[in-house]
């Protein structure tokens, strides 16, 4: 950073740039006579890429030299990575997401730092040059690629990058996204069909329920069209129903509240309930209760 004019303390102000290869003793120096100069370029065609140098910058004017800045380490320009990442793996997480992981190239196989990785992902019926690109930063060796098409074959490849550019690509790996989740939510049982006593039958594939006063949720999954819940008395319950598949969870139904049942009502009674699946577009519960009173 340049020194403000009010701190130059006289005419003939300029800078002294001192530098040396890291680990050596002797300093090389050059004078930059302009007080507005903010950079100096040292050219040496034999300088290896990414060579570390110690650098410090001093000041002077017509009265003499001032102090130097603290020493810092800078590097000559680097070359792009020369080796590709290895051990690339991909797995489907859902109908729209896949996870990719890889191993970095050997450190001594490139002339510069790896600043991150670029993952390219393209569908089997697309051209590679139109691939979706996801970049990571630093030493991260896995990432997620999102917004993909369900039940589709994709190719993925990984390459390292730095300030000089990107390196060679790894071999492509294949992954097929999962089937999309069910597109519609199940119908909600009508309030009039909610049983007045437990147990409760609810038809669908995944049932989520919790006490009305608690935040934790219990989940029951089934491949049948009904499930029986044995619920304690004297508690309000919130129930949701949603379809599931290999592609993930579908949309949940609207919440339905099961009011608590008093012990006085249930005492001395024996009850049973049955549920049937209607052929209509929504699921209806048909429940009956038999009392010994």
Fraction of residues in β-strands: 35-45%
What integer is the average pLDDT? 78
Provide the structure class: mainly beta
Which residues sit in consecutive blocks of at least 5 with pLDDT less than 50? 190-197, 263-293
The CATH architecture of the largest domain comes to Sandwich
The main sheet comes to: 5 strands, antiparallel
The dominant shape is elongated
Instruction: State the order of secondary-structure elements, H for helix, E for strand.
Output: EEEEEEEEEEEEEEEEEEEEEH
Biased composition (Polar residues): 166-177
Subcellular location: Cell membrane
Domain Fibronectin type-III: 1-79, 84-180
Main location: membrane
Provide key terms for this protein.
Immunoglobulin-like, 293 residues, 5-stranded antiparallel beta sheet, disordered C terminus, mainly beta, membrane
Explained architecture:
1% of the residues lie in helices and 36% in strands. It is mainly β. The chain has three domains: 71 residues, Immunoglobulin-like, CATH 2.60.40; 92 residues, Immunoglobulin-like (Sandwich), CATH 2.60.40; 59 residues, Immunoglobulin-like. A hairpin with a 2-residue loop joins strand 3 and strand 4. The chain is elongated and about 95 Å long. The chain starts with 13 loop residues before the first strand and ends in a 27-residue tail after the last helix.
